[in-house]
């Protein structure tokens, strides 16, 4: 498997493809996201990696201070270093505007933290931890949180829970945003 990673070493989706840069989500207003589990641009502990590679698929704890007037929060976790045409979506969730933090493992599909509604991601639902191809190098995992002007209940006449990630991104309008990136490289 490491040979495949080496062959794909220069193939990456790219930073410009993450939700952060979509016109409806890009805004100059920002807020800070922190985590007791990692700092920005530092490695994610193995507990947050995929079960397939020995982790626990436990989402990291996060904390933030969204602006007043936030109608809903949209959390998006993407890997812009995936060897694909667009970043791989590891998690999408809608959060109640009163939330200011998520506990570790709060993005489980079968038992999310209170105030969290889990949506579809790249494969299935809920947080899917890093599992980069061996030999592909370090990957960034962008934990992006968007303060929305209006809550998202339906998209194109169907419940938000049934929409594809890119449909959710397109339906959202952010007034502020925050981001923290973690790194993971498969040994």
From TrEMBL:
This is YbhB/YbcL family Raf kinase inhibitor-like protein. Pfam families: PBP. Belongs to the UPF0098 family. It comes from the Bacteria. GO terms for molecular function: protein kinase inhibitor activity. The lineage of its organism: Bacteria, Bacillati, Actinomycetota, Actinomycetes, Mycobacteriales. It comes from Nocardia vinacea. Signal peptide: none annotated. Keywords: Protein kinase inhibitor. InterPro entries: PEBP (IPR008914), PEBP-like_sf (IPR036610), YbhB_YbcL/LppC-like (IPR005247).
